[in-house]
Amino acid sequence: ATPTSIMVGTGRAAQLGILFRQGQALQELKDVKVIAVDKTGTLTEGKPQLTDFTVTDGQQEDAVLAVVAAVEQQSEHPIALAIVQAAEQRELQIPAISEFQSITGMGVQATVDGKLVQIGADRFMDSLGCSVAEFSAQAQQLGEQGKSPMYAAIDGQLAVMMAVSDPIKSSSKAAIDHLHQQGLQVAMITGDNQHTANAIAKQLGIDHVVAQVLPEAKVEAVKALQEQYGKVAYVGDGINDAPALAAAEVGIAIGTGTDIAIDAADVVLMSGHLTGVINALALSKATLRNIS
Ligand code: ADP
Ligand code: MG
């Protein structure tokens, strides 16, 4: 491609709200075989609501929600906001915390009133030696409804199983159908629960699902797709997507996402919708046609 045609192409893209941070990406996009996407905040709104809150025997609902919200006030994960809002709606007194820690892909923890409060996915609880077996049937059922189950432990004892529901963006289904029409494979790579991921993937007609992965494992999933199908574009919005954005031939960040994702990406979609990927692909093809 000539520098001029690339300039014209990236200029047109900018008018459509697609920022090519790398001219190279405009050339490479047309050769991509797989579009791999993150779930939370990319396919879904990234604005979950707390829908379920089941405490274990001997625990009191409001008291548990108050300490869980206290810890989540320090977190930037969309799940955290859902929990804090639920506590505010109930007008609960939220206690002070200390020693907050975020464990990427697992959850968060802090000390509240001298007690260690740990919140996150089932694998986080497993790693603490805290069994969530009593909730396995309920968690599976919630997952099949597309909700994301998670847990909190207080001083190493399971205190609650919760679930959040995050609506699918209205634009996601049509965008995926369109990608299929272009002969592309569509994969979802998420840190969320397997049942939840499968339920969302089914609604959207996604071909490949990789769930319950840590950020480094998102890179492994991208590599596996590269080996099997060829060049991969990865679309994501979170801190946890940065390694995968860098590993894919074309990294595409959702403009409403975190700065870390945007910094790791070759392309930024200002609209916040997957529809931008289709426009970017069309521009890539048109630009390269004009010069060959
Ligand atoms: P994703 O954004 O794809 O869900 P993450 O790596 O951010 O992936 O998180 C993976 C999982 O870890 C979440 O689905 C959730 O179960 C748990 N988790 C992460 N952060 C939090 C948090 N602040 N509160 C509760 N659970 C969390
Ligand atoms: Mg995300």
The unreliable regions are: none
Largest sheet: 7 strands, mixed
Determine the CATH topology of the largest domain: Rossmann fold
Would you identify the CATH H-level superfamily of the largest domain? HAD superfamily/HAD-like
Arithmetic mean of pLDDT: 93
What structural class results from the helix and strand content?
alpha/beta
Unique bound compounds: adenosine-5'-diphosphate, magnesium ion
Which CATH class of the largest domain? Answer: Alpha Beta
Order of helices and strands: HEHEHEHHEEEHHEEHEHEHEHEHEH
Q: Which word captures the global form?
A: elongated
Q: Beta-strand level of the residues, as a percent range?
A: 15-25%
Tally of DSSP β-strands:
13
Helix content: 40-55%
Protein name: Heavy metal translocating P-type ATPase
Organism: Denitrificimonas caeni
Family: Belongs to the cation transport ATPase (P-type) (TC 3.A.3) family. Type IB subfamily.
Subcellular location: Cell membrane
Task: Break the fold down into its secondary structure elements and pairings.
Layout: H1 3-15, E1 18-20, H2 23-28, E2 34-37, H3 39-43, E3 49-55, H4 61-72, H5 78-89, E4 97-103, E5 107-112, E6 115-120, H6 122-127, H7 136-144, E7 148-154, E8 157-165, H8 172-181, E9 185-189, H9 194-204, E10 208-210, H10 215-229, E11 232-236, H11 242-247, E12 250-254, H12 259-264, E13 267-269, H13 275-291
Parallel strand pairs: 2-9, 2-11, 9-10, 11-12, 12-13
Antiparallel strand pairs: 1-13, 3-8, 4-5, 5-6, 6-7, 7-8
Helix pairs in contact: 1-13, 4-5, 7-9
